Amino acid sequence: MSVAAENEFAAAKIQEELALNYLATGEYQHVFQRAGESGDPWVFKIPAAFGFVLPFEQPQRFFWPETLCEKLIYHATLSLPQYLERRISKRLTAIDGHGPMRRLGVRLAARYCRLVRLRCFREMLGVIDRVASHGLSEILLPYRIIRRCRARLDVDGRQTRYEGPMLVQRRALLFEEGVDFVSVNWQDIVDAQHMLWKCGIGVSGGGEMLGTRSWALLDDRISLADTSALTTNKSQIRANIQPELLDKAQNEAVRHLDANGLGRANYYLTRIRQEINLKRFNELWGSGL
Ligand SMILES: Nc1ncnc2c1ncn2[C@@H]1O[C@H](COP(=O)(O)OP(=O)(O)O)[C@@H](O)[C@H]1O
Ligand SMILES: [Mg+2]
Q1: Considering the domain boundaries, does residue 155 fall inside one?
Q2: What is the pLDDT of residues 264-288, one digit of tens each?
Q3: φ, ψ for residue 188, nearest 5 deg
Q4: Ligand 1 pocket check: which of 22, 23, 31, 141 to mutate, most ligand atoms within 8 Å of Cβ?
Q5: pTM of the model
Q6: Which of 130, 208, 238, 244 has the greatest number of beta carbons closer than 10 A?
């Protein structure tokens, strides 16, 4: 079946409420698969909603305050209640540091994070549209955007309902989950980023730029799987493409890949960096607009 036909096929099946089972999560998106459809070639992505769909267990990981407003919210909802409760629990041993104040704080923080993730998700869909408008959607895993979707989500037997935007994407093996590093055509990673850069789009994050994270292999083709790495923010990419940050990403990737017996990682990463670097970025950014 061609990619277009497959997309139509997926769309036809997602008119009504979807029944989805939890598959995996990242920081920005929760990922589901269709219930009772073993071997379904599609996954279903929604904005992360820790504290609603999945537990909000590690607030520090999922709520990393950056702006002044976020710092205020973070301290008011999470660190202050935690601090006060630790103080109180020293006096009242019955309170274990996870008392009502912290629970309320977590609820408020979770609400705020859900809103932020929804906004990020919508922005991401906007960048995907932009990639498509430049005729570059082949760089991404085959996908379908549903602007408004209803779904029943099942996470370990716990059911929640979801209504909102969804990204339906072809199921694939992400590189960080064990693709044989030396067997892929690394020029594809370079070409894809150069094409994106020319249109004022890029992926942020060292691993994403070097191709060791967020890309996937589908039918021997390299495509971007984690589209939340996409951005049109030039200064964000520029900040991440600094040589010392890429050195760090390269060393981490080599450690990880060589530990998995994949050897020769450094050879390939060094070749990629001959084309994915600050100089090439400055030359190419926006040159095709
Ligand atoms: N197309 C896909 N096929 C199979 N698994 C996927 C796919 N996309 C994501 N996943 C799984 O879901 C996890 C989170 O998805 P990801 O796109 O990385 O979200 P985030 O933007 O939050 O990082 C991935 O680490 C991977 O395990
Ligand atoms: Mg990810």
Answers
A1: yes
A2: 778 888 999 999 999 999 999 999 9
A3: -60, -40
A4: 31
A5: 0.86
A6: 208
